[in-house]
Amino acid sequence: MNPLDAQAFEALLDNCADEPIRFPGAIQPHGLLVTLSLPELRIQQISANVQTLFGLNPNALLDQPLAMLTGPEAATVVQQAAGVAEQMEVPVLELNLQGIRYEGLLHREHNVLVLELELKPDEVEFNHTMAKVRNLSRMLQRLQAAKTLPALYDICVKEIQALTGYDRVLIYRFQEEGHGQVIAEASSPSMELFNGMFFPASDIPEQARELYRTHWLRIIPNADYQPVELVPRLRPDTCEALDLSGAVLRSVSPIHCQYMKNMGVLSSMSISLMDGERLWGLISCGHRQPLHVPHELRMACQTIGQVLSLQISALQTLEISRQREAKMGALERLNTAMVSNPNTVFDGLAQAPEQLMALTDASGVAILEDNVLRCYGQCPPADDIRALYQWFKDSQQSVFSTHCLSTLYTPAAQYKDIASGLLAMTLPKPVDNAVLWFRAEVKESIPWSGDPRKPLNLEPSATGMRLSPRTSFELWKVEMDGISSKWSHGDVFAANDLRRSALENDLSRQVVREQQAVRARDELVAVVSHDLRSPMTIISMLCGMMQKAFSSDGPHTSRRITSAIDTMQQASSRMNVLLEDLLDTSKIEAGRYTITPQPLDVSQIFEEALSLLAPLAMDKSVDLTFHAEPGLKINADPERLFQVLSNLIGNAIKFTPAQGQIGVAAMSNGQDIVFSVRDSGKGIPAEQLPHIFERYWTAKEGNASGTGLGLYISQGIIKAHGGQLLAESKPGEGSEFRFTVPQIA
Fold first, then answer.
1. Gap between the Cα atoms of 136 and 148, Å rounded
2. What are phi and psi of 230, to 5 degrees?
3. Which residues pair with 116 in a beta bridge?
């Protein structure tokens, strides 16, 4: 490598990555390419070899009808096919040009029609080709019958080699890290074998992979070709290079052609292998001598590649399913351990460390919960584990896995011999918690095709220095360190499923604890209510007796005593109300609030409410009115319903100034009776309105004695009836509360 500074070298790498492989401005010479305007089919661009093939000047053909090149009959065939080129893939066209039979491939590309012409094989070669193609169904049946992936790969490479005659056919699988490995091969005895070898990611750059992902097949009949330029080089309509991504004849990078020669082949064909939308790998074919595979055989190979892709996806899915099934027994046993432990799920897992390690084939496992760290098997030191946990926690991943920890977390290099692989899970809890599985380092000798650590070479070109393809593909073994065996799909699934079980168990424990707390609170409230109710009743009775003993007309001392007794009685009454509210609140929160509904006449309810509440309104000079549609009957608990009405009307009286109005109404909406309490008070501020039904909410002004439970309990009562309690209010205009109760027909 020529001495260049690091910055310049990185720039060269970027230039290589940006090489315009989609827009080469040229084609391979084994065919002719022409672009046509739509819908007129006038020639916009044409490959320069039209001079050699047809004796026609390319410049003279520009902007001329296609018939000037092909003749009217062939032009008509192209015209008819052009109508469907956008909606579907056009079958190969048979065209006769100057007495020579050609195969025409047609596709649309950014508002132009691209026509590619290749010589049609002679009759003997064509019949030989079709005889091979007719055996395609047998080949596909063999592929579909394969039960394992290795068997599938072996059948594929052998069938394609027999079909095409290539010296070498191999399957190349891309790895997660970017490089690839040859996993199957069928080669002639004279060819160097690559099966099992790894190739660096730089051998197939990212943009080349993207082309493989979007286009199934690429062929190079002779890598020793001279590119044929398009005339003009740029599109006349856009002044931009023509996108040749979809063209079979697209000229390829000269670096790749040299790469092929260095590899000992002059012709190649690549077929994409897809896993959904992801480029899984390639079927790569190579031949020592130039070799042109006819279109029919190429399509047969493409079909094999597509079927192989489906089979790979299906068998991989089956393998993943098998891996998951193999984990179910261990997962059930660990779930039982978590359920049976009375403390925490992590305590349960700590009771089965061997099963926990066996679940993921780990060499060590650490269980962290708050300040408690328990380690089993081969684990890093405790301080290192806690630091590793913080790093994992910061990633905000619930489940994490890597087989090369030190490349992601540098401090792990200190203990790579016992923890090069990490699989970890954590639960969403307020305390630090995790299960961390470790795998020890595996010393492995990886066979590479050439030295992957050797710097890339540079060579001069017309545009300056460029990267040159490597020249050595000899076996090069690299000792890998800092890596463990990879975590399988089954291992990662097991970690996720164990996390799910642990989360369910942990939530179940939280629910039980909350239920126990609610029961304890309910019991306390019940005891307190019962134990306080009796003495408060006695106090109230004694106050009444004392009031009778002391007359307000007595001496000054007697009046003071009477006043104190009044205060005591009011306080005891308020205490009784508060105790009842607390008991109701406890029942609502626990979901045990019950009612005893019975048929009721709405008019009668209103009469009773008026007789009891009208004096309160009169004391404050507030006009209180009741109105109900005649004949309304409901199914409700009379005491609880009156409690709601009393609370709503009482609040309205409290917050409505003198000379104000309060209207209570009831009407039917078809299924329910809608009760409303409307007042002309000061209203509720907009920011407070969403909170009025919350526990212990009270108005900030004018409600010094409020407990904040009245509306909360009222809402609970109405919900117990199967209805809703809503409120509307405008400051300065008043408020309206509405609730529904089921109607009796």
1. 21
2. -85, 145
3. 33, 105
Weakly modelled stretches of the chain, pLDDT under 70: 1-19, 85-88, 444-480, 517-518, 520-592, 696, 698-708, 745
State the average pLDDT for the chain. 83
Strands (DSSP E) contained in 110-165 are 112-119
**Domain architecture of the chain: domains with CATH:** 1-120 (3.30.450.20), 128-223+265-323 (3.30.450.40), 510-589 (1.10.287), 598-742 (3.30.565.10)
- The pLDDT score that the predictor gives to residue 490 is 94
Longest dimension (CA), the chain: 140
Nearest Cα residue to 453 out of 624, 200, 222:
200
Contact residues for 258 (Cβ-Cβ < 8 A; gap 6+): 468, 469
**Number of alpha helices (DSSP H) and beta strands (DSSP E) in the chain:** 20, 29
Contact 498, 352 (CB under 8 A): no
d(CA 267, CA 218): 11
Residue pair 635/598 in contact (Cβ under 8 Å)? The answer is: yes
The amino acid sitting at 188 is S
CB 377 within 8 A of CB 363: yes
Give ∠ CA 597-599-602 in degrees, rounded to 5: 110
Note the pLDDT of residue 666: 93
Residue type at position 715: Q
Could you report how far apart the first and last alpha carbons of the chain are, in Å? 96
Question: Which long-range contacts (C-beta less than 8 Å, at least 24 apart) are formed by 173-180?
Answer: 173/273, 173/280, 173/281, 174/209, 174/279, 174/280, 174/281, 177/201, 179/452, 180/204, 180/281
What is the residue type of 626?
A: F
- What is the DSSP secondary-structure string of 154-175? HHHHHHHHHHH--SEEEEEEE-
* Cα(249)–Cα(252) distance, integer angstroms: 9
The answer to whether the bond into 232 is cis (omega within 30° of 0) is yes
What would the two tokens of residue 606 be? 């209103």
| pLDDT at 6 (0 to 100) | 42
Tokens of 108: 């649309």
> What is the edge-to-edge ordering of all strands in the sheet holding 372-377?
372-377, 364-369, 433-439, 421-425, 399-402
pLDDT of residue 582: 63
pLDDT value, residue 208 = 86
Round to whole Å and give the CA distance between 708 and 528.
20
In this predicted model, what pLDDT tens digit does every residue of 297-314 receive, in sequence order? 888 889 889 988 988 888
In contact, 115 and 280? CB cutoff 8 Å = no
Pairing type for strands 112-119 and 168-174 reads: unpaired
* CB-count exposure of residue 260 (10 Å: 0-12, 13-18, 19+): buried
Parallel, antiparallel or unpaired: strands 623-628 and 661-668: parallel
CA distance to 494, 539, 552, 570, per residue, from 560 (Å): 79, 18, 9, 16
For the chain, helix, strand, coil in percent to 5 are: 45, 25, 35
284: Cβ contacts below 8 Å, ≥ 6 apart:
168, 169, 170, 171, 172, 268, 269, 270
Q: Checking DSSP bridges between strand 112-119 and strand 100-109, what pairing results, if any?
A: antiparallel
In 3D, which of 290, 285, 145 has the Cα closest to residue 221?
A: 290
Specify the pLDDT at position 371. Answer: 87
3-state secondary structure of 561: helix
CA distance 654 to 741: 25
Residue 706: burial class (beta carbons within 10 Å; 0-12, 13-18, 19+):
middle
Residue bearing tokens 């093939």 = 53
What is d(CA 629, CA 670) in angstroms, rounded to the nearest whole number?
Answer: 13
Residues 173-195 have pLDDT tens digits of: 998 777 888 999 999 998 888 88
Comparing C-alpha atoms, which of 635, 640, 655, 662 is closest to residue 714?
A: 640
Sign of dihedral through CA atoms 118, 122, 128, 130?
positive
User: Can you say whether the dihedral through the CA atoms of 413, 414, 418, 422 is positive or negative?
Assistant: negative
- Separation of alpha carbons 357 and 424, rounded Å: 12
